[in-house]
Input
Amino acid sequence: MSNITRKFKRKNAGKNKKQTKKQLKEQISNLNKMDNKCIFCDAPYDRTNSEHLDSFRVSIKENDIKLCCGDCWAKRPGNL
Ligand SMILES: [Zn+2]
Output
């Protein structure tokens, strides 16, 4: 009984998040296509590193994605 309820809940939650998930998937596929490094100093960007997630800036303009590490962002604010 509880199993069925859990499954049903998960199914519903998935339905509600469908649009967001799709957008996220597209963003991730875009991120996968780009170089995972800072455009200024080539510092590697690790998406699994939460410190990198916090410090790196990502600029997405149309299909152009730029990454900037925290250090370069501090030196060049707004220049991404
Ligand atoms: Zn940098």
